[in-house]
Amino acid sequence: MKINKKWLELAHDKNVYLHPTALYWLSAQHGSQMMGIKDNVVGCWYKDHTFSYMTMENGLLAPGKVILKRLTQSDKLLRKIEEVNKKEVPIMLRAATKLSGDKLAGLSGTKLLSLWNDWLEKFISMMRYSVLATVMEMEEPLLSNAVENILVKKLGKNNDKTGEYFQILSSSPRKTVALSEEIDLLKLRTIQLKEKLSEKAIEKHLRKYAWIGYGYNGPEWRVNDIKQRLNILPRQITAVLDLAREKREAGRKLQKRQSQIEKELKLNVAERRLVHTIRTLAFWKFERKFLNQKAHLLMEDFIREVAKRNHLSKIQACMIAPNELKDALLKENIKPDLMNERIKESVVVFKGVNYKVLSGKRGQKIFQEIRKSLSVDPNIKELNGNTAYPGTAKGIVRRVDEPADMKKMQQGDILVSTSTNPQIVPAMQKAGAIVTDSGGITCHAAIVSRELKVPCVIGTKIATKVFKDGDRVEVDASRGIVKKI
């Protein structure tokens, strides 16, 4: 598998491993293949408990352009994406349920492999359509740019309304599972303020929603997480009730405002289709992401069983590639030294839907290529990204990627992150502005910043490498600019 081009880093995170991230890139390759792109190259890079989604130049851009063209020409593909998500996400979750529980210990390797293969088949079937929004937006935000170009054509260049209208038109008015959880949390807060909140009520909430905080490999939300989130909510019952009412009515009000803007701009049929497309994909990418996290939590028992049978830790088991699980379950011969080597540094390189895991001496050449591709000029003072929510702010940079980092945040600080997640929302609530390396208009940071009405710039690619804790920066989210001052 000869690689001689420039690598691009699309997203990175801490304490994330080969399982399940390689499955997402495998899904992206199946989606690309479905679009007629069969030999593009992408990769997952792991180094010392950090992780990056990688692509060769044009690796996702080529299929992304095909996806955008098909979405622009008709609503057939969009209908298919929605149909698959509605129908197949529940099927995938039912298959994941079969890989959870104490019963796994009593199953043969052959039976476990059969259950795993059944889940994988259903996951890929669902994801090959669901992942198309990610493919289209990650290397370059193709759909976002197309919608923004419509606004520029209608409003003129440098119009202050462009960022505001983009944020409104691209937001989904549909109720996500995350919003349902927030409304239910506010109900708990009213009970808490009446001094009637029990541990049993919190545990019931967790049974319904704990997986929202799970991410790629946990941990899920626990009792203390819910208590911390409750304690930063308003202290007056009337304010809590007002906030709950605002969240319940937000979708209806957004839909009304979207209709007003579409009429004001006099969008034609093709333009309306693109606007409808971006908000539909925004909903499903966010909703599907959290439901996938539910599957990851359900399947944690399976990963632990694989680890036990191969005398591995959970983290070591999470470095087993999908095509190695047959040996892991039937032969139980996965070597811990190899898994440790992969944790130290490894790359899963995909060419089309075929892939290899490279580590140790076999990976040295590609490691050098990646480092060279990702080197950053230390003199950079200003970055450009994409507007997720317009506005301006000045403040002190605080790097926040995980809950342990949140103690650094003071009200009005500029939160800089690789990519945000539900576990750091309390820090996002304090932020004067949010800046991320990765993400398109449908990412977590984009959606939460709109709910919080906090200026947000996403997709800078290298913000965490340029801006450090204590730097003073100015964020002009309306223009997608972040600079040191």
Q: How many angstroms does the end-to-end distance come to?
A: 45 Å
Rg over CA atoms, rounded to whole Å, is 22 Å
Strand count, sense and closure of the main sheet?
8 strands, mixed
Quaternary state of this entry equals single chain
Report the count of strand segments: 13
**Overall average residue pLDDT:** 93
Lateral arrangement of strands in the main beta sheet: 6-13-12-8-9-10-11-7
**Secondary-structure-derived class:** alpha+beta
**Percent in strands:** 5-15%
Number of domains: 3
Poorly predicted regions? none
How does the overall form come out from the CA principal axes? globular
Approximate helicity band: 40-55%
Q: How many separate helices?
A: 20
Written overview of the protein:
The structure is a single chain. The chain is an alpha+beta fold and 485 residues long. The chain has three domains: 7-134 and 299-373, no CATH class; 141-285, no CATH class; 382-484, Phosphohistidine domain (Glucose Oxidase, domain 1), CATH 3.50.30. Helix content is 54%, strand content 14%. It has helices spanning 18-34, 61-73, 76-97, 109-130, 132-138, 142-155, 161-170, 177-193, 199-209, 223-231, 237-265, 269-298, 300-309, 314-317, 325-330, 336-344, 364-374, 425-430, 444-452, 463-466, and strands at residues 7-14, 41-47, 50-56, 345-351, 354-359, 382-384, 386-389, 392-399, 414-417, 433-436, 456-458, 472-476, 481-484. The strands form two sheets. Strands 6-13-12-8-9-10-11-7 form an eight-stranded mixed β-sheet. Strands 1-3-2-4-5 form a five-stranded antiparallel β-sheet, sandwiched between helices. Helix 18 links the parallel strand 9 (414-417) and strand 10 (433-436). The model has no long low-confidence stretch (mean pLDDT 93).
